[in-house]
Amino acid sequence: MNALTIKNFSKEYRGGTKAVDELNLEVKEGDFFGLLGPNGAGKSTTIHSITGIVNPTGGSIEVFGKNVVSEYREARALVGLSPQEFNADIFATPVQILDWMGGYYGMSKKDRKERIEVLLDQFNLRDHKKKMFRMLSGGLKRRVLLARAMMNSPKLLILDEPTAGVDVELRRELWQHLQDLNKEGVTIILTSHYLEEVEKLCKTIAIISDGKVAKQGDKHDFFKEPGGLESAYLEITKK
Ligand code: ADP
Fold first, then answer.
1. For a substitution probing ligand 1, which of 10, 13, 20, 192 has the most ligand atoms within 8 Å of its CB?
2. Considering the domain boundaries, does residue 174 fall inside one?
3. Does residue 191 sit in the same domain as residue 98?
4. Predicted local distance difference test score (pLDDT) of residue 134
5. Among 68, 86, 99, 161, which lies 20 to 30 A Cα-Cα from 129?
6. Full-prediction pTM beyond 0.70?
7. Is 116 a domain residue?
């Protein structure tokens, strides 16, 4: 089954900017999928349309067969998003941040409590559970956002630049967390500017340019060609 099926998806913002133009994309269940492209290519617009933050102006998007517009409740329950910006209450603790997210998904108090215990261990946050978000390092903040995205046990996890601003050591730790989640069966879609990260983690890669998929394939297809992923990326994105 496809975790994600995007057909002829378009988004034109008010004012006339065509951010995405008839984009087609399929992500298989269990994949670790890398979405690459220069700034302004349409990655965030696509991600935000999958999670219901942005309304498509054309085409259709389905998450595990659920339409993100007409079946938005079912679709949203299947997706977790770790956003690029640190959009958590800076005075809240990791426990509060996770608890609020559970409330958003309508989880009972007991279920929230149990789930938080699991996530604190899974993301090594137990020692930091009572610290204010603003006091945490960049790497820890990323871990909190990742745990928050996993609060509703989504089958599809979307990560927008998950290691931006994270130092090398913590980045490796985060990679391990992501690989573990993927091994447990979570389908992951990742955007990143670090080609090394995409190369290490992703099984399938798509390069988006000007609101369309310019090239997509198995990771190994990109590395068969001289210059590998970097050459393909530069070739597509040069203007
Ligand atoms: P990426 O995530 O690949 O950098 P975006 O999806 O953010 O790309 O942007 C694609 C295009 O849509 C850009 O030209 C951007 O300026 C425009 N855009 C993004 N968000 C909005 C918005 N809320 N209103 C108007 N234009 C937008």
1. 13
2. no
3. no
4. 97
5. 161
6. yes
7. yes
